[in-house]
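Could you help me review a protein record that somebody else here produced? Do not assume that whoever made the record got everything right. The record follows directly below this note.
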Amino acid sequence: MGKTSIIAGVIVAAGVAWTGSSWYFGTQIEEHLDEYLANSNQYLEKEAGGSVKFEKISFQRGIFSSEAILKLRVNVPYLPEKSIELTGKTQIQHGPVPLQSILKGEFFAGYATADTALVKDEHSKLIFDFTGDKNPYTQHDRIDFSGNIHSNATVAALTIAIDKFNFQSQPIKIRSVTDKDLTTGELWADISEISAISARDSDRKIFIKNASAHLNTKKAASGSYVGDALATIELLKADQNRSPADKGNPLIFDQFKMSVKSEEIDDYMNVGVGYEIGKLQTHGVDFGALKFNLALDYLDRKALEKFTTQNRSLFMSAQDSFEQAERIVEQYGQLMTNLVRGNMQLNVSPFEWKTANGQIQVQASVNLDGSGIPEQAILNDKALGQSIKSVEFNMDADIRAVEDIVSAIVQVKGKEKDTARQQGKTAVKELLDLIAQTGIARAEGEKIKTRISFDGRQPEEEKISLNSEKMSIQRLAEKAAPIF
C-alpha cells in the first residue's frame, strides 16, 4: 500500500472519528441542557416563587451542530398583562473540538460551544427599539468535559426616552463560570457609563462611571447560597436641582465600594457588609473619606428562611398596598424577635471618617441573648433591653477632623470657607468644654477619646463602665444629657 493510500486512510479514519464523536457529544449536550434548565428552574422556584422560569421550546440535533430555542417567562405580580416573555436562539457546535472554534483560531476541548442571541418578536420589539435595532443580548458559552459552563455575555447599549425620563447606558459585559448542578458559581460584570435624567418633578440627574461587580458563591448544606460579593463605582454623581440655588451642586461619591460576605455555620448565618467612599462631596464641599463595616453574626438561619418565604408569598399574592405594608412591618417585627431570641451579635469594626486634617474612628459591638423572650411574644423596648447582654463602644477622634466636619456643614449652608472654619473651631471649643464638665469623654492632646461598656451581668450600679469609672445606666444618661 502506497504512502498516499495510507495518508488518505488516516484522513478518512480521522473524519469518521470526528464525525462519530461530534454526533455523540451532540446527544450528550441535550441531556446537559435539560439538566441545567431543571436545576435553574429549581433554584428560581425557591428564590422567585415560580415567577421566573426557563422553557425549552425545541432542540434540533445535527452531526456537527445543533439549534435550541429557549424561552424565558417572567410573571409580574398584580400585573399579568405586563408579564415578560423573551425567546433566545442558541447555535451549538459539538465537541470534542468544536469546528467553529478551529475556524476562529481558538482551541477548546469540551462538550460544546454555544452562541445565543435574543429573538426579535412582538414581545422583544420594544427592547430592540431601545438598542437601535441591535441585538439587546448575546452570549457565548463553552461547556467543558466536567459540565462546567464558561459564559461571556453582552447587554447592548441602551437609550430609553419615555415622557420626561431619559436613560442611557453603555454595553454591560458579563462573565461567569458555573457547574452543571449550580452548586458553585462566579460572576463578573462591568459597565463604563450609566446616566439617567428625570425632569417630571425637578431636574434629577444620576451619572455613574466605571461600575463593576464580582460574585463568588456556593450552595451551603441547607441549600442556601453563601459567598462574597464586591461592587465598585469609580464615580457616582447625583444632582437634585429642586431650586435654582441648587444647580451645579451635585452629591458626588468618588471611589465607592460595597462588599458583602456571608457564611453558614450549623444553624446560623454570619453576614458582613462593608462600605467605602474615597471622597464624599456635596455643594462643592469635600467631606472626606468614609469607611463602614458591619458584621451580623449568629443569625438564626431558619428564621431568615421563614422570613424570605413569607415575603415571597406576600409579594406574589394579590393584596392591596396598605394591607401589604402592614404585613411587611409585622414580618420584620417577627424576624427581629426571632433573631434577638438567639445569640445575635453586631459589630461595627470600624467606622472611619477621614478628613483633610485628621480622622474619627469608632468601634462598637452588641451581644444579645433573648432566650428569655416568650415564644409568641413580639419584641418591644423592654424585651430588647433585657436581651442586651453586653455593649462596647470606643471612639478616637482627632479634634481637627471634628473641626473639618463642622466647617463643611456650615459651608453647605452657604457660609464662606474662612467663616465656616472659624465656626468649626468655636463649635469644637464648646464641645470640649461640655466634655470637661460632663466627663462623658476626655481630651488627650489633639484627640477626643471615650470608652463605654455595658455588662448586663453586673449589679445595677456597676452595669456601665465609662472610661474605667463604674456607674448605672441612669447616671450615664444624666452625664450625656447636656451634650445632646
About this structure: Residues 298-484 form one domain. The longest strand covers residues 203-219. The radius of gyration is 30 Å. Confidence is low (pLDDT under 50) at residues 3-21.
